[in-house]
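Hi R.,

Here's the chain you asked about this morning:
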Amino acid sequence: MSLKHVVKTALTLGQGVAKGLPEAADDADPIELFKEWFQAAQDSGILLPESMALATATPDGEPSVRMVLLKKVDREGFVFYTNYGSKKAHDLDANPRAAVCFHWAVLQRQVRVSGSVERTSREESEAYFRTRPRGSRIGAWASRQSEPLPDRSELERRVKEYQERFPGEEVPLPPFWGGYRIRPVRIEFWQGRADRLHDRLVFHAEGGGWRSERLYP
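And the predicted structure, written out as tokens:
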């Protein structure tokens, strides 16, 4: 982390611990607040600030959690991408609800999001897939995500196979790969404060807008 980022991190942390979150307000916009916090995390120099813990569950309630990367956030929700044959995809297709948690430790901040889940359109997935490095696009074809792998050489063989199949820069989107969008119904912001008297501000989707309230730490 550069000296510039260290200074930014210290300033952001100091403001949060000293001032905390704004008062709960029904007209507040949690998406804009998330964008502000996400930008602060990016500016601080934190490694992979887009990392988020994604929790899913089977229809009978068996939970599962793993780290994924946020690729887009807007009025429609929070978007990430995966292999549609993966464990998370099977969970989401059968039980289309999920929760994610962002944790930016040096800023003493967390954001928790939960809501319904849907697949992104093929067009949206293709647009994102084209931005990925060639190696990552080849890897998406080569990996049978979450399936048993006999040994590493089998994966390497499949990578070579698809490198030869797609020799140029044009690597198409696999039919089994794409995005999911979490449409939030609840967004909670957590700011660390002195003496563990942390600030918690939660927003609930309601009537096309948001209702907010504070929670005890």
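The chain has one domain: 3-214.

Let me know if you need anything else.
M.
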